[in-house]
Amino acid sequence: MKPFIYDYTLEDLQAWMKENDEPTFRAGQLFEWLYVKRVNNFEDMSNLSKALRQKLVDQFQFVTLTEITRFESKDGTIKFLFGLHDNHAIETVIMRHNYGNSICVTTQVGCRIGCTFCASTLGGLKRNLTGGEIIAQVVVAQQMLDATNERVSSIVIMGSGEPFENYDETMKFLRMMIHEKGLNIGQRHITVSTSGIVPSMYKFAEENTQINLAISIHAPNDKLRSKLMPVNRRFPFEDVMEACHNYIAKTGRRITFEYALIGGVNDQSEHAQELADVLKGMLCHVNLIPVNHVPERDYVRTPREQIFEFHRILERNKISVTIRREQGHDIAAACGQLRAKHMESTVG
């Protein structure tokens, strides 16, 4: 299979031009066609010679994201299910906020982390996406927004999969997103979320970026976290927290802790107080997420008043906290739900 053109950095393209007896400045022109003009084929790149365009056609391909289905929520959230070249499917979400458009991208086909409240892990991990396949999700979303003169203003890597188990391709994607000659998205407008892959957390602390880090924590102690997140048996809660302290010390940047509230499981007042005790004094923020009901799972939603009580306890302990505003609730916008339905219908 020919390599994806989006998998090549500007430096890679410059080297390719040199190897193919083309002026290296052509790489910059090609880069502009890909990320500024956002064309979908080499033939449209009119300031490249016909011979060069043919070389590109012969040696590269664009990422094929075939739209299987699209749902649009009453709140403006748009969820895509895209088919890949190998018949796998992934999800990408556009979320509209009063401050701009945010894109939630996927880094793996499926997931092996096994969180018991999440649909992404149903069916396990099929494969990693390449950096180019992750990039293509943002490019396609931006192409759709181009029609109304809007732009992607922020990115969250919180779709299906564990980005820190696909670390190199995720970092390639991030570097391409912030490239000044590419989409040029501000680093502080990008957030990568991990379930706590400790070695990669230490690597990320050394990357010298301004990209935000979020940790899916979902429990205030080792025992409960292992029950909810089997990955905790590989990377225990204490080790995750130690990696968080290291990240803050190295970067001076705040960490966001994602905490999914599950009715009767991790949402009681004692859980809130225990979490406050663990996080006291840390440069952090807690994002409380009322869990979406997933038909394949048994968990129920935390009652509204209990959500507010959990929030109050953290605030009383001087922990920065918000309750995530729900988006796309009417279109199965939780990670993996749309793909799970598609897999079920395909097998059926």
Sum this structure up briefly.
Specifically methylates position 2 of adenine 2503 in 23S rRNA and position 2 of adenine 37 in tRNAs. The protein is of the alpha/beta class.
Helix-strand layout with pairing:
Elements: H1 10-19, H2 25-35, H3 50-59, E1 66-72, E2 78-83, E3 89-97, E4 100-104, E5 108-110, E6 125-128, H4 131-146, E7 152-157, H5 167-178, E8 190-194, H6 198-205, E9 212-216, H7 222-228, H8 237-251, E10 255-261, H9 269-279, E11 284-290, H10 304-316, E12 321-323, H11 337-347
Parallel strand pairs: 4-7, 7-8, 8-9, 9-10, 10-11, 11-12
Antiparallel strand pairs: 1-2, 2-3, 3-4, 5-6
Share of helix, binned: 25-40%
- What is the CATH superfamily of the largest domain? Aldolase class I
| DSSP helical segment count | 11
Distance between the terminal alpha carbons, to the nearest Å?
A: 30 Å
What is the number of E strands? 12
Biggest sheet strand line-up: 1-2-3-4-7-8-9-10-11-12
Please give the CATH class of the largest domain. Answer: Alpha Beta
Beta-strand fraction estimate: 15-25%
Q: What would you call the shape?
A: elongated
Structural class call reads alpha/beta
The main pleated sheet reads as:
10 strands, mixed
Pattern of helices and strands: HHHEEEEEEHEHEHEHHEHEHEH
Based on the coordinates given, report the CATH architecture of the largest domain. Answer: Alpha-Beta Barrel
Cα-based radius of gyration, to the nearest Å: 21 Å
Low-confidence regions = none
CATH overall fold name of the largest domain = TIM Barrel
Question: How many structural domains?
Answer: 2
Mean pLDDT, nearest integer? 92
